[in-house]
Write a structure and sequence with these properties.
Chains A, B, C, D: This is 3-deoxy-7-phosphoheptulonate synthase. Chains A, B, C, D: One of its GO terms (molecular function) is aldehyde-lyase activity. Chains A, B, C, D: Keywords: Transferase. Chains A, B, C, D: One of its GO terms (biological process) is aromatic amino acid family biosynthetic process. Four copies of one chain form a homotetramer. In chain A, the strands form three sheets. Chain A has an eight-stranded parallel sheet. A four-stranded antiparallel sheet of chain A has the order 2-3-1-4, covered by helices on one side. In chain A, strands 5-6 form a two-stranded antiparallel sheet. By secondary structure, the first copy, chain A, is an alpha/beta fold. Helices cover about 35% and strands about 20% of the residues of chain A. In chain A, helix 3 links the parallel strand 8 and strand 9. Chain A has two domains: about 60 residues, Alpha-Beta Plaits (2-Layer Sandwich), CATH 3.30.70.1140; about 250 residues, Alpha-Beta Barrel (TIM Barrel), CATH 3.20.20.70. The model of chain A has no long low-confidence stretch (mean pLDDT about 90). In chain A, helix 2 runs parallel beside helix 3, helix 5 packs across helix 6 and helix 9 runs parallel beside helix 10. Chain A is elongated, with a radius of gyration of 23 Å. At the A-B interface, helix 5 and helix 6 of A face helix 5 and helix 6 of B.
């Protein structure tokens, strides 16, 4: 942390700030510039993280240098973390494919989706039993009935299950059926829920908030890791911007950024990212080329009649065609990763 | 709802869409343009809200005409709703002032804040016992102990209590001490929590999400109203944008926009809005002039040593000075509201 | 400027960076922390503003401490600048009102607008002769003919003229007719144009860019001031965000922020700010209460038939009613400004 | 265009709107819903594009259905446009590589950059002679001297030249040296400049505005096309958002979106897109996989000492390594494009 004094700060004002810092057991280094003094704090600056230095007379502003998250940080854990989902590895260099409908609508529908998903190479089946809906009048999900269906379909096709858990009240229930717990974008900073899923020890797919910063996202993962649960998978699903040609703005740079700052794997969600089905394939290929550890896409046997997100769901033909293309790029990436920077 | 067909859509494609619409019990009106056909849907369009029409062959796109929220809407409830907080009215034309520290740090501190708040004209005391912190290592709040303190301080100064409830697990506890339940920005779309606070029937201060749209915010209120709870107060606290000179961008237009679209009162939170203490007073005056039903500000006896949000908290002198100015503008607004549009 | 070394930076890497800094004639102060070294630069850091220190081995990142703009900064010019527009003062504590149509459509129209504007208390007449249109097929303005009309109308009502100049080619022409040159939002960073208007010495109303940061805006003013022209008026006209309920998000905090960082006056443009006529009056009142040095609004005798921006233009009745309310708040603000912070 | 009447609109109010529409020579189709009437306009709606229907009594709002741009639209020009740059084709299915320094600093530097660029497979040399700088005190470019150097270097390595033109005053000069005129992000809506470069008939690389919408971008291209110049190349360079981990948010979805809506080619600028050199390679690969028609990257022999944008420039080693990887993905994409959707 750095405290920048104003141009006209007095010696007394400087002393007050320095004394406050030292009272917390930290040390200071002063940079006496031509115009102003800059104070560098030495020690455990988390102790003064919340001190309102900006309110001190003579202080212009403070700048934070270190991040709050530790367990999540690659600085403290240089090697990649491989998340083990009951035998299925995520983050080990292979690309994990997850596919399924936005909502579980019935046993037949989820069975058909599982068939299609598997056919395209997916090893994890997605489907929502508890749906976060902007309006209270929209379909909220089949709940436990839906969980039973998706478990049944996944087992029939030897796949894992990823599904969203929206609150602590249903956490135990969801844990009975899911292999991976999904935390939705609107819950990225539902801190109590993060702690709760952290305590389960189960793999958690943490979606980026609708306008979540990379820093908030990493700190959200820290809530989970702080409970001893290192089975965390980041999911980039697009961020909110002014642009309306796409549902969100798919921030593909999150892939290299997260991979640099953290050791947890990151997968892409191009379906929510762009929100328009015919843009999804190119975003999927881009994600593979950007180095994503995997992908999660929405499919439906009959998108026109899907109960939710029909406009971004892929039908069987489009999905299988896309997966064929994805595999080509996957192969190319193996070769790419072998081209070392000398 | 309107479905816009592509320029080259065929008669058969048009028929498929029309048949689907009619199968839901709706009617259609066709606008046969020079280039394209536009289909207007007549009837309860919520039935087809989630049909993926965009996936139909020949369809260019759909446009939504009506909103999902009803109970919240002024169209269905033309008169202002006055929220009654155990005798204190919000939304009746008077300006309600709420003030207090970001966090409750101890009995002495909250007592002192209550004294200052009251002196400036506040009738509601704010203070956080459960704090939403980006990092798990930051101070999380005094919890029940904090609730006891703020209740004690409020009672000592004949004030009401507003405090944040972060999860259902602590809802009953918070209800024992608070007069107004605050739903924080990060929980604007925590739908389960909204339903839970809705069920209590207690007044709810609903903060706008960090990047919440007006539409999402109104629909979030709908979750609460749908439980039969019409004691809703909107709180504009700034939105996330690219600008870094302020902590958020205080969207003062939310005041007239919400007042046009909904019948629930709206108050301003200039403290979080700008995030820098010396900008708070002018934003407070602006809010009064914009017609806000009230305001909520952060104060602290010693902002430099506040445990959180010190950089945006007002000390006693600044707060009292601001309140004097606020009262002047309040008086002016009474005169302004008398200037009728003939 | 501060350079932050990585945790694992070596002594040699540190030396390379220090040597580079010193080679530019600057000095360094080192903060040797527990984990990392932070280098504070002392001297004229503009010399190394563009050195890619981030590319140096061992460097984590750099932080900029001082701003580039100087002449515009209040640090270097503590007193308010009062812009003199041929006798009319802007920034002297009074509120200047500017009103007129979006586009000049004809002599009768601009004459009628001048009559209405004057009646409401405006002293400056606005109107566009050169219109920036998103589409090349939209009405581009009456050009010189329009300039003649607005000059004639302003003279008839003893008002000043403010109108947009879009390029250097037409600058001399516009200068013949205008008292204040307006630089539109899309041209905030048209650096050549800024230099050109700077050279004229005429008053310049500099609109904030569509997504202009405060810092870019201040630096844009610096381009003008650097030509010796201190007759600069900032115009806050709303910024681009994700929200669609309003045309832009009116950033009212720009008023206190600019007044803190710069000595040039700032006026509000609530018309473009919200883009919906019935929200304009409350935004106007809010601007007065926020301390704006003035305001510029769009009016039209018949908004329904305006050639541009009809949806945000005020008709005579609404405008006069609003101005009555504005004057009440203006009076209140005189009293407010007298309430000094002891 | 569609006009939506309010719930309580009267027959008379409806008639006024209909009469106004018909007075412009258009026809109407009415959708009489349960609650409200919707008016569909039939005919050349550009005539009423600027009528302020929202100001009419009884009108709730209007919705625009068709876009303003025509020549740029794929609807009117279904086949891809191949831009011919003096023999070099852009948009013909091959990937064009453009590389070079941010600024031309001297003959030796640009010569060295050309050598490196060519070695990596680039066929177009970039370099700025006129630099758009946020601050007036920053290096503004070598101007004509710089143009001479880049031409010399490009000729030495049999490459084309792309360089930014910032104003009409220097347009003729830049035309003498450049093969492709670049319009910078800050000038995307400098309409006069767009018309001027349009008139030259020379290839134009049109960068997306800092917060440019897809629609504004397409309309900006329309200004150029409207002058008879169809040699337009879109350049996605990232958009401004709240995220600060990257300099901009690289909107990779612009590639498929533009390719759907327009027939002009689009290339990616990952350098400005992310603004941090070590994220550039993955963004480059992602762009290839997304289907970009080409790429433009910043390189420098010694980024640490670059006069501008050093933090995002690639040194020779990183650039050559990246290009090797790019070629692998390019090859894979040929195979991908052969996988047809049956």
């Amino acid at each position: 942390m750095i405290i920048i004094m104003k141009n006209d700060a007095t010696k007394e004002q400087l002393k007050v700030v320095i004394d406050r810092v030292k009272s917390e057991g930290l040390n200071v280094h002063l940079s006496e510039g031509n115009n102003r003094t800059i104070i560098g704090l030495v020690g455990d600056t988390s102790k003064v993280r919340n001190v309102g230095f900006n309110s001190y007379d003579g202080v212009d502003r403070t700048l934070s240098v270190s991040s709050a998250y530790k367990l999540t940080s690659r600085e403290f854990h240089p090697d990649d973390t491989v998340v083990d989902v009951d035998g299925l590895k995520i983050g080990d260099g292979s690309m994990v494919m997850m596919a399924g409908p936005c909502s579980i609508e019935g046993l037949d529908q989820i069975m058909e989706c599982a068939r299609i998903a598997k056919k395209g190479g997916a090893t994890v089946l997605r489907g929502g039993a508890f749906k976060p809906r902007t309006s209270p009048y929209a379909f909220q999900g089949l709940e436990e009935e839906g969980l039973k269906y998706i478990r049944q379909a996944a087992d029939a096709y030897d796949m894992k299950v990823i599904t969203e858990v929206m609150d602590e009240a249903n956490l135990d229930l969801v844990c009975q059926y899911a292999d991976i717990l999904q935390i939705g974008a609107r819950n990225m900073q539902n801190f109590k829920l993060l702690q709760a899923v952290g305590k389960t020890g189960k793999p958690v797919a943490l979606k980026r908030g609708i306008s979540g910063t990379i820093d908030e996202w990493l700190n959200a993962a820290e809530y989970i890791a702080n409970e001893g649960n290192f089975n965390i998978i980041f999911v980039e699903r697009g961020i909110r911007t002014y642009e309306t040609a796409t549902r969100n703005t798919f921030d593909i740079s999150a892939i290299p950024v997260i991979q640099k700052l953290s050791h947890f794997p990151i997968i892409a969600d191009p379906s929510h990212g762009v929100g328009v089905w015919d843009y999804v394939p190119s975003m999927a290929l881009a994600s593979v080329a950007a180095g994503a550890d995997g992908m999660i896409v929405e499919i439906h046997p009959d998108p026109a009649n899907a109960w939710s997100d029909g406009q971004q769901s892929l039908n069987e033909k489009t999905y299988l065609n896309m997966m064929e293309q994805v595999h080509v790029v996957e192969e190319a990436m193996k070769k790419v990763n072998g081209i070392k920077l000398i």
